[in-house]
Amino acid sequence: MKRRTFAACAGLAALAAPFHAAWAQNYPSRPIRLVVPFPAGGATDLFARELTQAMGEKMGATFVVDNKPGAGGAIGSTAVANAQADGYTLLLATTSTHAIGPLITKTPYDVVRDFSPIAHVGDAPSIMLVPVDSPAKTVREWIDLARKNPGKLNYASSGIGTIVQLTAELFNAQAGVSVTHIPYKGTALSIPDLISGKVDVLFDSLPTGMPHVRDGKLRALGVTSLKRSPLAPELPAIAETVPGFESNTWFGLYGPKDLPAALVARLNLAANEALADAQLRARFAKLGIEPSSSSPQDLAALQAQDTAKWRKIITGQHISLQ
Amino acid sequence: MELIHNLSLGFGVAFTGVNLLYCLVGCILGTLIGVLPGIGPVATIAMLLPATYALPPVSALIMLAGIYYGAQYGGSTTAILVNLPGESSSVVTVIDGYQMARKGRAGPALAAAGLGSFFAGCVGTLILAAFAPPLTELAFKFGPAEYYSLMILGLIGAVVLASGSLLKAVAMIVLGLLLGLVGTDVNSGVARFSFDIPELTDGIGFVAIAMGVFGYGEIIANLSQPEEDREVFTAKVSGLFPTKEDFRNMLPAVLRGTALGSSLGILPGGGALLAAFAAYTIEKKTKLRPGEVPFGRGNIRGVAAPESANNAGAQTSFIPLLTLGIPPNAVMALMVGAMTIHNIQPGPQVMTSNPELFWGLIASMWLGNAMLVILNLPLIGLWIKLLSVPYRFLFPSIVLFCAIGVYSTNNNTFDIWMVGAFGFVGYLFYKLGCEPAPLLLGFILGPMMEENLRRALLLSRGDWSVFVTRPISAGLLAAALLLLIIVLLPAVKAKREEAFVED
Question: What is the 3-state secondary structure (H, E, C) of B292-361?
Fold first, then answer.
């Protein structure tokens, strides 16, 4: 039965191939809609607007950014999962929608089955922030402090099952410390409590955190990328103290499932060309995002690898929706 | 005098032809979207954000800020004329503003809102200019325990909002708290009462409830009556401008509202919003002068105080944004995005690294407020003409604009269905004689209260004494207790009932 279905699909694909080839030559003949599953004005939205403008120039096409926020990105992702695979509806997915989200809640889509990966377009590392009067001046000192005060210290996050919380739990697991979770409705709202020392540590994005470091109210102990980040070269990687520690928010371009290979290739090329632009790289740096270049397979592999990594943390640290 | 130097730098930036033009464009746009029910500044600024790419950063931010406070002015117009609070802060304006409009006093109500807002805006801007850095410290003093106690105070104040039965008011607050429970719980991550509908995991939108219960509910109630009994506004409009007596009543209310708004606006956790509620509560608790109209039936103080408070709060809520980079509401979050687009790192450095932007923006706010008064006062006559539009044309337009407005916030049709459903709920409330304002306050305060209560207890590891050992928190709780006693005092209770019987 399974084999027959597969054969039928292959047959259909073979029939459709010439049609797709001709079609791909005319593509794009109308504006391409990129669904951003987060509100306008946020980092993901700004990133999407810069990226689509550059991709549009490379492809001679117009992109329209369509913000469909809600349910941690699940609403926008569902819209794309159910869209026609004609290359005119794409999704800017993130770690939240395509790796962590499905592990934490029941999403109406299956990340692997319902989407066609196109390109991994960027990574945003976080930084480890403590109040400026914290006795810990390095990652090592922080670990010592936490070991001396088990269960007494607090970390802030933007809620259960967010990348911010999981990064902190990954750190707790790998450094062998126990720190209490204090959820907020967004990291920005936790910053006054961090500055005044009501909470002790926060893993936050560079653009939100760095201004307070420069203002002398917070101290950055390290960056969460595996190696030092070009976005903040002065900061040590946490991995220099806690070997192998890595946590990035990645951004991936996806289409609905069964997007014709010719279209995937076309979009992947445009994305990679756009991301190579030096001016654009400088603009992304302001958003705390390092552009990356990749094949569709790279994105699929990254998604699978990250899902496995976070699943381990979620089960190991007993993170669940109580 | 550094302040004078700074302000002159700011006015130098704001007083250029281009920036004055963008300020005016922002104010006009803001007024327009404020008047259109349901279309709020969030959706407008989000839509215009990409269009500002081409503008110089200062001009772009001046325009976006203009939209924000322009919408505050426009929003009060809709609240007063058609009983529709476009934003949470105008919920209380509706109570007495709409009653004034029904009695043919829409003109004085609009003028009171405009003049009060202008005065408050000027004071707020001055505070922002002079004291922004030291006031930031206040935000650090406010932790979860303090926020929780502040919310308690606000919630008890909500009881005072109702003019009718105390029991019904409490019931509406509790219903509001329950509606506020819908959505993902911050502490456990569990989606409560969402029935597996993804849209409900973010909770029910404020705009959907406000538009539905106030707007659609009222329309259904109106249409259910035979045409000749329908709500028609008194043809005789008694004067466009407030009388001398009105001014005498208004002035202290405006001063109190401004003081409250300026101080609460500094708190990033919903302070500006509470200001309007608190201002109304205080007015209602001060003694009526002989011959004054009671609250809930068109008292001009009930318009002037909350409008001043929300405008002062709107200005001072720029303090956490500009000095800390913390956006206190959705509009401010968009402003952070706008700064990022223009290569300005929002945060504590804005003031020193981009002084022309910081002071230019502040100066433009003052100019913008002046423009708005000039723009709005002569327009009052025009707005009032709107009321003479036959109801058969007016109500479909309101229905349509509300639908467009709620759709534009999330680009999702689900929200339109929600407004429709809440319209019927609103009609039910109308039939039962329940006032919706306390419901909305419960709805807004409930989730914030729970969040802060649980956060405070998490931080204290379950020790409840934090609420009384921290001085600010203890003070707020004492004030709440005092307010509760006032509400429950037999004398006051008797007076409330007396007022109720008069109906």
Answer: CCCCCCCCCHHHHHHHHHHHHHHHHCHHHHHHHCCCCCHHHHHHHHHHHHCCCCCCCCHHHHCHHHHHHH
Which of B136, B142, B201 should we substitute to test contact with A (largest number of A Cβ atoms within 10 Å)?
A: B201
How many CB atoms within 10 Å of residue A144? 14
Mean pLDDT of A92-103: 92
pLDDT tens-digit map of B228-264: 666 655 555 666 778 888 888 889 999 999 998 888 8
A chain contacts of residue B330, beta-carbon cutoff 8 Å: 39
pLDDT band at B139 (very low <50, low <70, confident <90, very high): confident
Residues in contact with A259: Cβ distance below 8 Å, sequence separation at least 6, in sequence order:
A85, A87, A116, A118
A213 assigned to some structural domain: yes
- A78 in B contact zone (CB under 8 Å): yes
Q: Judge if A140 and A225 occupy the same domain.
A: yes
Same domain flag for A58 and A110: yes
Of A172, A216, A218, give the one whose Cα is nearest residue A194: A218
Nearest to B411 among A66, A185, A196 (CB): A66
The nearest alpha carbon in chain B to A75 belongs to: B198
Q: What is the pLDDT of residue B423?
A: 92
Give me the pLDDT at residue A22, please.
Answer: 52
Neighbours of A185 (CB within 10 A): 15
Instruction: Closest CB to A192: pick one of B45, B139, B345.
Output: B139
Banded pLDDT at A26 (limits 50, 70, 90): confident
For B70-92, b where at least 16 C-beta lie within 10 A, e where not — what string?
A: bbbbbbbbbbbbbbbbbbbbbbb
CATH (domain of A226): 3.40.190.10
- Strand, coil or helix: B22: helix
Based on the domain organization, do A214 and A142 belong to the same domain? Answer: yes
Residue of A nearest to B458 (CA): A182
Q: How far is A211 from chain B (nearest CA, A)?
A: 6
For residue A16, being part of any structural domain is answered with no
Q: What is the widest separation between alpha-carbon atoms in chain A?
A: 68
Q: Is residue A307 part of a domain?
A: yes
Contact yes or no for B325 and A188 at CB 8 A = yes
Q: CA A72 to CA B189: how far, in whole Å?
A: 11
Asked whether residue A11 is assigned to any structural domain, the reply reads no
Higher pLDDT, residue A72 or B109: B109
Residues A130 and A236 occupy one common structural domain: yes
**Whether A213 contacts chain B with CB within 8 A:** no
Using 50, 70 and 90 to split pLDDT, how confident is the model at A17?
Answer: very low
B199 contacts in A (CB within 8 Å)? Answer: 70-71, 75
Report the CATH number that the domain containing residue A108 is assigned in CATH.
Answer: 3.40.190.150
Burial environment of residue A322 by CB neighbours within 10 A (0 to 12, 13 to 18, 19 or more): exposed
Question: Within this chain, do residues A117 and A130 fall inside the same structural domain, yes or no?
Answer: no
Residues A60 and A165 occupy one common structural domain: no
Determine contact: A150 vs chain B, CB below 8 A: no
pLDDT of residue A25: 67
Q: What is the average pLDDT score of chain A?
A: 88
pLDDT at A16: 45
Residue A2 pLDDT level (bands cut at 50, 70, 90) = very low
pLDDT tens, B476-498? 899 889 888 877 775 555 555 55
Residue A286 with chain B: CB contacts under 8 Å? 340, 343, 345
Mean pLDDT of chain B: 82
Write out the residue range of the structural domain in which residue A62 sits. Answer: 31-124+248-316
A208 close contact with B: CB closer than 8 A: yes
Chain B residue numbers touching A68 (CB-CB < 8 A): 410-412
Question: Are residues A291 and A208 part of one domain?
Answer: no
CB contact A285 to B (< 8 Å): no
The span from the CA of A78 to the CA of A242, in Å, is 37
